[in-house]
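Internal QA ticket QA-208
Title: Verify multi-chain structure generation after dependency bump
Assignee: T.L.

Test input:
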Amino acid sequence: MTGRSWGAFLLRRLAGTAVVVALLSVGVFGLLYLAPGSVQQTLLGTRPATPETIAAIQARYHLNDPLPVQYLSWLGGAVRGDLGTSIRTGTPVADTLGQRLPLTLALTGYGTLLAVLAGIPLGVVGALRRGRATDRLVVTAGVVGLSAPPFAVGLLLLVVFAAWLGWFPVYGTGEGFADQVLHLTLPAAALAGGAVGMLVRFSRAALIRELEQDYVVFARARGLGGAAVLGYALRNSLVPILTAAGLIVTGMLAGTVLVEVTFALPGLGSLLVDSVTFKDVPVVQALALLLTLLIAAVNLLVDVGYSAVDPRVRLGGRAS
Amino acid sequence: MTRLPVSVAAAFAVLLAVAVAAVSAPWLVPDATGQDLMLGIAGPGPGHPLGTDDLGRDVLQLLVAGARTAVPGALCVAVGSMLIGNLVGLPAGYLGGWVDALAMRWADLMFSLPALLVAIVVAGVLGGGYGLAIAVLVVLFAPTDTRVVRGAVLEQRHRPYVEAARLKNLSAWRIMTRHVWPNIAPVALANAFLNFAYALVSLASLSFLGLGVPAGSPDWGRTLSDNRTQLLANPWAVIAPGLAIIATAAALNIVGDWLYERVDRRGRAR
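Actual output:
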């Protein structure tokens, strides 16, 4: 591959991502106007509607300017880290997000770790035992994991491992590292379910495809051991597994909302639900914008990473 | 006809049970939401095989009645998104050009969004309840159907029967609807099953968060959120609806996957 086409690919993908983020930011901004009631009322929330506060809100959000100007000033503030003030608590939204973020990151990180540790080995076992009872069991378990909503799994885990067996605490986030890990284990396991299902499916299919390739047959014919051949095939099947990463991240983001509500964990997900229920539009806007950026960044990273490994993606223009 | 795999047979059995419950709920459990506040939440006992929830409602009756709220909404989403998918995907695949480019850019944009999160935000901020949640999910699911239909049409477009129809000077619309569509319909149907499963889970999730069905409905997701703080008093009030959601969604996915495989094999053999 020449450097020129690599650069062109990168530029094209960056431009595509920028367009998507711009379009979605208009949608996020529009939430304020879609919410029932007048914009002023929505932004006032529970604050007393004195002429001073109304004037302050109008000045703060440039409500007397034309819409595009309002949008730009909102976006400009967001870019500089000014995400407005929460209607519910009256505190700056950026501070609240900063407090809530670590828990959500820890939960999704732990969930991803559990999903990779369970999903890829299960997929490999399924591929090696293809068509046999073990494989059918693995495939069915994968479909169940993919289908089951995290809140239902979480509650079932709570019943069995917290209420009946008493191995894990029912609620709370814990103090100190070991205690926190203990408290986050059930939520992370509930969150991992969907990703395990996806990883089983992708890794099994990818490894089966690799094992049918000529180079595997040659390697076997040359007398290479099973473990060495499996090593080659596994390395090559990692590329398609990587494409599942985007799907897994978006799945995890939706899942963390349900899991945090199920286990009453004070993360970004439960903040989103509380804010949506309370119609705390500035917080909802900030979270939506954050999620938009996060998902766009992951999709971009996956695409770029994938094309760095497999030049055909760049030549074809787009991954399919 | 090959023998049905065990998992597919089991999935059909689950779906049959859910369908029977959904259809016959008004006769089977006419008073499912009847409360017995004196009793409150209680474990399994005489008259209540799975116990009662915090309002003294019978868990087993709620479970049966819950099928009636779970299925129709999800069915609306699956059918609605399939209709849009066909309406957009058929011309996109057959005509190509700017129609295709426009449809695919739209699909790309929608694909970059996690459907459930958007539904939470939009349904929550607008506060439109169950009907709005269904409408939002239809719009968010439609790109998948569009992609699937378009892909299937691309495969058919250069087949001899399409060329023959074109030589007879039939209109593009007529070729699309009368000749191409019957050949891609099985793929669209198999995909609708997978969407049905996803819609069921999404609507249950919204109801769990209090953004779906109205309070007091005998909905599986709603029952779970109502009883999640009382795991010790009657765990069955959580186990029963939880298993119902997981089993139904898994059964729909298994049947959908199986249909897909069959349709795919038939398409290749042709």
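Spot checks passed. DSSP finds 13 helices and no strands in chain A.
Status: verified.
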